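As a point of orientation, let us examine one representative protein, giving the amino acid sequence and backbone structure tokens.
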Amino acid sequence: MIVDRSRIRNFSIIAHIDHGKSTLADRFLELTHSVPEREMRAQFLDRLDLERERGITIKAQSVRIRYPGADGGEYLLNLIDTPGHVDFVYEVSRSMAACEGVILLVDAMQGVQAQTVANLYQAMENDLVVIPVINKIDLPDADPERVKGEIEEVLGLDPSDILTVSAKEGTGVHNLLQEIIERISPPAGDPDAPLKALIFDSWYDSYHGAIIMVRVVSGRVKTGDRIRLCASAKDYTVSRVGVFAPHEVEEGSLGPGEVGFLVAGIKAVKEARVGDTVTLAHNPTKEPFSGFKAIKPMVFAGLYPADAGQYNPLREALERFHLNDSSFTFEPESSATLGLGFRCGFLGLLHMEIVQERLEREFGLRLIFTSPTVVYEVVTNHGETLRVANPSTLPSREEIASIREPFITATIHLPAGFLGPVLRLCEERRGKQKQIEYFSHHKVAVTYELPLVEVLWDFYDRLKSFSKGYASFDYGFCAFRESDLVRLDILINGEVMEALSIIVHRDQAYYRGKELVHRMKDIIPRQMFEVVVQAAAGGRIIARGKIPPLRKHVTAKCYGGDVTRKNKLLGKQREGKKRMKRVGKVDLPQEAFLTLLQVR
């Protein structure tokens, strides 16, 4: 069906986490009768149970909405509901590239937050029309006038353009739909030009292979066409073309400005990556979309089955999961302590948590995750650059010329009264202050450059604690920078426990080593012989602790008599313990390692 482009509007909803994106999308569907009342549910576009439970959007979704305009004609509104978490920032950027405008949603209580600013900058980079909207005006503590002032001061947007709505109650939503039609331009594009379409989402289907969501910029794609994916240079035959409205509807073809899905027998999601360009094999476009990049994991962790017999089911589960999430990577590894497992790569900590929960739920697995780490760039003395994600694979000191670690640019928005503790926290984490900007007498934005490894664990929890929950945090990758890093090993009776090795800054090695040794002393059960726990870094021992042996009362039957008899028995016991220490092995329960590996 040929669609009049002047009647199409493509837009996204962007906002900080929990500012109401999915709820506003629900009201759009409800008020336009896109979904029957009996089928309507909260967070309709969030199809994963995990998304609805956590109240976050993990995968970008698209839906076509039919809306009667004030002129009496029907408009096709293509809504793309984007993820809000920083781990999925690339998906947000590609979703924006498929639009002509965005709704920038701001909470009427919380006001402008860190990701509000980051998302606005992305929209401006894509030259999109921005419609600022204040949501949650129905709340008792809502202060839309104050938030309007923040939007003007912090974001530099005209307060006369700001709309107010309650996505929960539906107040002002009809007016917002009309403003979308009036403010956002219809898409351009030549239907006779070579096909050029942007992939902004993809997922795996057991029957059809990878299903790709595309925005057609020029040309036309229809069932039976032979298409080419520019990044992989592979050709496929289109078997189905359609849209989500919000349920699947086959259309037969898509033209300029339209948003829909393609099925073409693509084997895996990694062959149809977000940001890639779709064109015709016999008449390809000469200018694929710029900005495409292969997503690289930033956080790594070891993944092991709690039961060694579940190794093969775990491998099959990871292979199936990777089909649906190309940003997740894994490769086999083994540990003397935990057995056979995998080294997995994730976009961030939230991505890691989501993968863990989905594997356990969908595949019924009990899993052990080791503490996360980041990827380091190691320059050898021969000039070769290695990417090291596992501390146990770090080359020896003699082979290393330098080590570079990933740094991020972190932006923190918070009330001015909490500035001191937050600055101290960033300084403790080896941060370098770049900017402090006051937006009003009570709100401030702080920009720091921080090593990524320093924010992996309790940074966010401590940030929320110091600011009583008011601080918001956003970050983006900055660069790899050279740092004075060393490998910290834990030795038990002289044997290196590779599962516990970590890479730390040299200035922190003593304190981290001392902490680990102290905790190991409390966790490892006493043996029949003395156990020595040591921490080593830079080729020397920096911390040491002893676990005393269990002692049998060998003189219990000696009641008086010559003391030499007692000394003889005690001497034999000492010699036996020395011999046992030489040939014996420390019995380390798996639970001891889990305590250290999972909460380090």
Observations:
- Residues 5-183 form a domain with the Rossmann fold fold (CATH 3.40.50.300).
- The two ends are 58 Å apart (CA to CA).
